[in-house]
Every structure is written in C-alpha cells, then in structure tokens.
Amino acid sequence: MNNPRKTFFSKRTILFFTCLLIIFIIIQFIRPEIKNPPVTGDLQAPAEVKTILKQACYDCHSNETQLRWFDQISPLNWRVAQHIKEGRKVLNFSEWGNLAAGDQKAKLWEAVNQIQEGAMPLKDYEMVHTSAKISANQLTTLKNYLLGTVKPSVYNDTSKINAADKQYKKWQDNQLSPDNLPVALNGITYIPDYKNWQPLSTSERFDNNTMRIIFGNDIAVKAVKNNNIHPWPNGTIFAKVAWAQIVDKDSTIHTGAFLQVEYMIKDDKKYASTGGWGFARFKTPKMVPYGKTALFANECMNCHRPMKNEDFVFTLPIKH
Amino acid sequence: MKSIKYVLLAAIVLSMYACSNTPTIAELTNPKAALPSSFNFDQLGLKAITTFVNKKQGTTSTLYGNPLALKTAIAGTNQIVAGEVFALVTWKQQTDAHWFGANIPGNLQQVEVVKSTPTIEKPLAVSYARYEGKGLTLNSDTLNNQDRIKYILSQKPAIMP
Asked: What is the DSSP string of A301-319?
C-alpha cells in the first residue's frame, strides 16, 4: 500500500513548510509603524491634476498614505515603510506649504520629468498598485498644467537688468570672483577654470527662466570626440553654468545675472555611492556651496537617477 | 542537448535585453547639432563668450572668441583691434528629450566667422564669412555682412566669475 504521494510529502518537507509558516506568523508581529502625520499645507492644483497625483504619488509622497491589505503583510510592509519614509523625505505634497515658491515649482517639474522618464511611480510599486500607473493622457494633463504655469521672461525687466549690470561692472573690474576657493560639504572645491573649457551644449530652461552652458573639461571633450562616453571616463568634469534671462526688444533671450555653477566629476571609485559622479553646486558670484549636510548629493542623485542608462548625464553633447 | 538549447535561448534573451538598454552613440550625443569634423572648429582655439536664443526664429546661438576677442568684448569698448576672432554658431532649437522644460540646439544652421586683420592697405580690416547648413558650405553673398559684423561685435559676454 505504498502511495507515491506519501513519499512526495515527506516528513522533511512538511517540517520545512511548517517552520516557514511559523516564521511567517512570527514576523507578522514585527511591524514597522506607518503613520499618517497631519497634513500641514497640501498642494493646491486643479482637480484633474490633483486626482492623478493622489492616485499615483500620494501613497509615498504625502501624509495621506492608503495602505492596501497586501501592503500590511510582513515582510512586504518593511519595504513599503521604507518606500514611504524615503518618499516623504524627497517630496511631500502634504507639507507643500513648507517649501519656498521656487522650490515648489522645481519639485513639480522634476516630478513630471521623473514620470516622463519612467522612473516614477517605482516599477515594483506600480506592479502591485496598478491604479497608480500614469497613462500617456494623464502625463499630457500634467505637462499641460505645468506649461500653463510658465511665465516667459519679458522685455525691459528692470530688476533683472540692474542685477546683471551690477555684476557686470564688478566683473569688468575683476572684483566679482571669490577671494578663496569655496569647498562644498562633500569636499569638492570650486573650480574657477570652467570658463576656459569647451561648451558641450546649451539649454534654454523655460521651466525656471534660465540660460545655461554646459562646459566639459579636456577629458570630456576628448571622450565626446572618441565616442567614449558610455561610461564617461574617470577625470571627466562638467560645469553647468546658469544665468537669469534678459529679453531684448527683438524677443531674443540673453544671459543676465550669473546664478550658479554646478559640477559633475567622474571618479567611479571615490564617488561610487553617487553613481560614480561627485556633485557640487556653487551659488551666486560668491560661489556659496549648496547643501546643509554632505548628504546633499543624494538630492542630485535622485534627480539624475532616471538617466542611469546614460551614465546619469542629461546633456547630449555636441561634437565641435 | 535540451539544456544547451535552454542556455542558448537564455543567452539570446539576455543579449536582446542588454542591447535594448544600452543607448547608441547617436542617442547619447546630439548628432544633428554636430559641426562637421572637416570644419576643424576646435583648431580655432576659441572660448565661449555667451549664448542667446532668438524666439522669433526659434534658434539658439553660442558666440565664441579667441582670448583677445573675449578681452575686448568684456571691456565693452566696441573698438575692434587686429587679431580678434569671433565665431557665432547657430542651431534651430529642439525640445530636450531628457528634460521637459528645456530647449536645446537641434539642426546646425550656420557658423559666422568675423576676423580682424591688418592688411597692406589698411591697418585694420574686418572680414566676415558665413558657412551654412549641416555641411557648413561657404555662402559668398555679402548683402548683410556689415549688419552681421555689427551684431556679433555688439554682443555682451555672459558673466563668468
């Protein structure tokens, strides 16, 4: 009377699955606390925009997280809790009021760009929360909303002209550069030589009314020439300079006051934790280092992450 | 035999996956904005002076100059001296595929070169040349040359501390 099934479910197998079940039950008591703190200042946007953001982003980017039953099963909920914690830190629509107007604007454009590049919503989240998926039409709705908020620079903006003129006079007299070389909190020193490098591209940013030149050092220029940019070689440095916009009477947009210079320095060992790139931003002609702690580079990485396949570089260099 | 088949199949699937994820050089650079290498632009030894965008024409330009040109441009005296070289590169604008909110150079439109040199007859002569299209072929039309020289020399450099 030997039943082959009996040998299939051997004692060992039963023991193994029983242990697994017991562990599964035990870990149900190890639960991260996922709270919804009060909403202090929610994002104000048209209803159709808000609906999309609520359905696709609010679970991790607001204090109005809605957990489904499957989000609450350990060990899945450990990952869910981590996502929410990190998500809220980067972008929290419930504490929108805490951000300065300029930062609010920048965050929204960044968010829509992350959606466009397919980096958000996170793929594994989207897989189980199918309602979070953003359709092409919904993306268009978000983009049109942003386009509607754009305020193009105008002719004869005296405050912008004055700010530029003031800087320009100092620059002519060699009085504009900082006396010493400021150092960012992650140890990257301001590199004044950027202006002698070659432009790899330029950019008119209508999302934040700036003009930009992206410079590359000799290693970068050579890498472009030799098609050796995937990955970019160690020693590559980019300097992206941003200016305010000044519009003349013929609707030509010129560079105005100097706003900032941002660097990306390639060293796959030294900067392994941030995609092999060292990031730094120096603001105003005084070159004030950006960031409150050395972790500011995480912010840079969050924005550059969708460009992982492009070695984290947004710029499409032009061969000269 | 069967296992070999599976390994092969897995290899093919994996390589297809790898290929679709690695962007080509054409995707990583901006080929339609590129200057033909035969033009030897990099041999001119120029630095960036400024960039501007003509919204009416939908173009974006970068003005380059040799160190002397940059120096006199910053001084803003509008007095051209011998030995200055300016190059104004103009592209049609295109939307930035990687950043919604930005316009970047698209098709290369033209390169204009202004040079000041002493000649036998005059201590200072200013020459102008315009190269057009993707291949940058010289256009010998001289109709607006003086206006273009004036326009190029009147550009204020971008502030680079």
From this structure: HHHHGGGGGGTT----PPP
